Structure formats: structure tokens, C-alpha cells
Amino acid sequence: MCDCKVNNELAPVKPEKKFRLADFFNAHWDQYVKSPKEYIQPEQYKAVNAIRTCRTPALGVDIYACPDCGEVTEIFHSCKNRFCPTCGWKDTVKWSDRLKDNMLNLPHRHVVFTLPHSLIQLIKDNGKHLLNTLMRSTADTLKDWIMHKYGLKIGVISVLHTYGERKNSHFHVHMIISWGGIDTTTGELKAIKGDYVNYGFLQDKFRCKFEDSLIEMFDSGQLEHHFTGRIDFMKSLKRINKKNWQLHLEPPMAIPALVIRYIGRYSKRACLSEHKITQIEGEFISFRHKDYANLDINNKPIERVLTLHYYDFFPLLLQHVPLPYFRIVRYYGLYSNRGQIPEEYLCKDTSTLDEPGVDSDALYVENQLYCQHCRREKEYQYTIIDKRKTSKMGQRQIIIYNRDILHKRKAA
């Protein structure tokens, strides 16, 4: 299962990271690529290289200095890759801060739709085509139901996840939906009273929408599969339908900032947080995960530690690298076009999203740019980039430039 928590639990402040994923890649990646367990996709190579060079001289170093005492601080550039565990957290904070001012002034709910594991291989064979179908069908399920039942246009924010707690394949969509919307008749902003939902109806509606698209792709020859024919394909769907498709809804939360804070923990972050790594020793890595099959006396999943050799860990992790140009965060309904929402219907939330969860790297940079002796901010001086290419003289090329000069070149 995915690592969902009930919405009345606030995430604790992040502890200091003891281990870095980049260190494990640096130690064993070059050996692994000589004889990989699975074929390495180009986007996976790119993600690994980004993690290994993130905050190293290869990407550049900004030099800051105190104008009074001259104390120098070096700030390394980040890779900004979606799969990087550190950059993913920073992107989440920025995304959350932008989003909270553009949400309807209504309660919102966290919803999770999950595909049956019997469809995992079919999803892998068809990639973005079935992932697009998954995101579209889940959003349409809720939009159509609320439109039909309440006559309201709602806003939907969807985030695709492909992994479970043990980093196995587990395709599901986290969603934020406005529990109410704009009345199609009067144009008024209305909230939905109560939080009752007919789970069975929505599960069937989600299943039907997804399977209708699946059958359409099969009949048109667009579906990559290993079925012997249409009868075999329909029998397979019938076996899958013997169990209900999973749907999880949290109670409505009145303040949109709380919803964003909650869903932000599942959005742009990498599939493995470095804070969950408990040990890196030799060729093995260990990380914490929740065991939802076993609960403690408080009815909460037991936390366990999984230890893997790099030969098994690398393909397990890299299968979740986002596909090129695939949007894992999408907006539907009213949130697909903010221009159709009147300004007075938006939530004017002045609160910040700094808590819970503190980015230790961001705090480190902020503290380093403030001179403790002179009590003033350090000023930017120049940037150094190690191109890692040798010149004709056999020396590495080191480029030093000023940001102002670089911006003028880009403008030209």
C-alpha cells in the first residue's frame, strides 16, 4: 500500500539526514551498469547522473562573501531532477506555496484511487498511454458524480504514484477535490453538506470508466498485450472484477492550506526519502517502510526495515523514474483553468507552509548566507563551474563568471 496517513496527523519535523542516496550510487553504480539486472532506460541514466552530481562542483558553485569581514561561503547548485530526493522536497514546498492561494474557499478532500495489481504488467507494457487513462478516468469519476448529484463544477488536483512502501509497483492516484464548487445554474459557490459517499458506486464507476478505455484500446489495436484473443482478454477482466477496486477518502478539511500541506508530502517528492535510509554498509542499503498487513495495538501499520543488495535495489528504485515529458501532477475541472474562477471565490490564506516538515538543506543555505560576526547578509560574488572536460593542454576547464554577465548573454 501507499504511505497514506489520516489527515489529523501532522508530519513531524524532519530529522537530519544520516545517509545520502548519491553516496550509494557513487560507490556501486559504475559496477552495476557493467552487468545490469534489467535494461536501463535513457531517463534512468539521466536521473542517476543528476543525483550523483547534485550539489557538486560539476553543476557549479556560487561564491558569497560578507562585505565587512570577507567571510566566504560556497553554495553548490542543485540538479532540479524530479527523481532527486533533495530537489523533490524543495519543489514540493514551492508548489504548495503557489497553489494554496488559487484554491476555492471550500473544504477539500484527499482521495486515493488504486489499480488492481493484476493490471501492473499491462501498465508497464503500455506506459504513458494507460497512465493517462488512469488519471483521466479517476478525475472524470468524481467530476461526473458530483455534477450529476449536486449540479456543481469542482476542482481536482491529481498526483500519480507508481510505487508502494517497499518500492514495488503500485499504481495509484492521490487527489485533492473541492468538496463543493460553482453551481451550474446560479453560478454561486456552494459547499457539499456532510461527508457521506457511496463507496461501492464510485468504485464501480471508476472501474467501468477505466475498463471502457481499455477495451476501446484493445479493439482498435492500440493495446500492447499477450492475450490470445478478445475472449481471453474479457475473461481476464472478469477475473479482475471479482474484487472491488480500491478507493480511499479522507474526511473534508476546511482550510485549503492544510490540504496542500497534507497532499504535498505525496506530490513531487522522490519515491525514497533519504530520511528513511537507516543504513548503508558495503554493498547493502536499508530503509524503513510501513507494513500495512500487520497493525499494532493502536491500529497503525508496523514499521519495518528492508535491506537490499545494490543489484536488487537499483532496478527496484529506478523503475519509478518518471517517463520523459510525462506530467505526474495534473489539474481538472475548475482547477484546469483558474481564469474561470471568480476572484472572490478563492481562498485568501496568509498562513505559511513551512511546518510541518523542515528542509534541512534550505535552512543550512539560509544560515550560511548570514554572517554571524557582522550580523548582515553575505553578497554574491561569482560562480565557478567545473566542466570536467580536459583542454588541449591536458588541464580541466574551470569557468568563472558573474550572474549578471550570464543573464545579459541569455537576453541577447
Concise synopsis of the structure shown:
With 412 residues, the chain is of the alpha+beta class. It has eleven helices and 17 strands. Helix 1 crosses helix 2, helix 3 runs antiparallel to helix 8 and helix 5 packs across helix 6.
How do the strands and helices of this protein lay out in sequence?
Elements: H1 21-32, H2 42-53, E1 61-65, E2 72-76, H3 85-99, E3 108-114, H4 120-126, H5 128-150, E4 152-153, E5 155-163, E6 169-178, E7 180-183, E8 189-191, H6 199-219, H7 230-240, E9 246-249, H8 256-264, E10 277-281, E11 284-295, E12 301-309, H9 310-318, E13 329-333, H10 360-368, E14 370-371, E15 376-377, E16 379-390, E17 396-401, H11 403-411
Characterise this structure:
The protein is of the alpha+beta class and 412 residues long. It has 2 domains: 343 residues, no CATH class; 27 residues, no CATH class. Helix content is 33%, strand content 25%. The protein contains 11 helices and 17 strands. The strands form 5 sheets. The protein has a 5-stranded antiparallel β-sheet, with helices on both faces. A 4-stranded antiparallel β-sheet has the order 2-1-16-17. Strands 4-7-8 form a 3-stranded antiparallel β-sheet. Helix 5 packs across helix 6. It is globular and about 70 Å long. About 5% of the residues have low confidence.
